[in-house]
């Protein structure tokens, strides 16, 4: 083969490679140039609180899907947000292990954890790494640690407990009140704030009892409460306990109302308590979904994708949208760059017309809705405070 033929063949081969390469690049341009930005998520996805965690996760996933549909860019480069979900099993020790695993996965921020008892220990792990965290945790201690990386999705127990403490005394006319909590950071924290407010309103605490978040038999506690003549029983804990508690309250002959927080205001509670659910009163942050600024649209799209939302689904959605919005405004997914933007953000969300934070990371505005079970359904009893749409 002469040199001219060799050069011609070589040139033809090189041209074919270039053309093939160009074809592949054109076909795969989005995948080749798109940068993945990981957002961590942690909640109980197994066990008795899995319905909370899954509904929360689905809300976050819908937000990330919506953000990606807008074809976002950071620093002029197309990005795709990706959820990295972990199951912390509502266990504080597992939560710190999950937090480290999430960080090792290279996340730019974290939505979660769900429980106060898991969010608080995990928050130090994220704070040490400088990673922003928007948690569902409602215990006051979560944002009282002084970390600059901690933010809430819902009103704190200080807000909910104080509202319900006054409500029970002033609106229900309960002079003598019994309190039970499950000794978790959430349950005890909510009960403590309720007690302070009830006493300040003139109520008398005739019993302060405690159980665990694994218990199912409350007869001994209720027997003691019955002897004290309580006008109302407040429970700080989840529906896995408040459901059986409501049943046993009626079985022992107590006709006093059961009052609780947002983890009782669920469809699961109604199923567990059965007919004994009627008359139960529970608080929930914000306004009813149908009155939320973006509630109707969110509800339709969520149902189309996942079915019925859980209590925490819209709050998970807003948390993820707020975090993404902070990154887009900062034009960066680097935590050090978008964290200051997140701290000062004003975002029109599904749950509120203006989501913003105070210096500690608590929601700057937050109303409370009081619900009552009537004929087996949760019905709005009163809306207290907060910015209305």
How are the elements arranged and paired?
Layout: H1 3-27, H2 29-33, E1 35-43, H3 50-69, E2 73-74, E3 77-87, H4 92-104, E4 109-112, H5 116-129, E5 133-135, E6 150-152, H6 157-170, E7 176-181, H7 185-200, E8 204-210, H8 219-227, E9 232-236, H9 239-251, E10 258-260, H10 267-273, E11 281-285, H11 295-306, H12 313-330, H13 335-343, E12 368-374, E13 377-384
Helix pairs in contact: 3-12, 4-5, 6-7, 9-10, 12-13
How would you describe what is shown here?
This protein has 389 residues and is of the alpha/beta class. It has 2 domains: 34-155 and 289-357, 3-Layer(aba) Sandwich (Rossmann fold); 158-285 and 369-384, Rossmann fold. 45% of the residues lie in helices and 19% in strands. The protein has 13 helices and 13 strands. It has helices at residues 3-27, 29-33, 50-69, 92-104, 116-129, 157-170, 185-200, 219-227, 239-251, 267-273, 295-306, 313-330, 335-343; strands at residues 35-43, 73-74, 77-87, 109-112, 133-135, 150-152, 176-181, 204-210, 232-236, 258-260, 281-285, 368-374, 377-384. Strands 8-7-9-10-11-12-13 form a 7-stranded mixed sheet, with helices on both faces. A hairpin with a 2-residue loop joins strand 12 (368-374) and strand 13. Helix 3 packs parallel to helix 12 (313-330). Mean pLDDT is 91; it is low at 1-32.
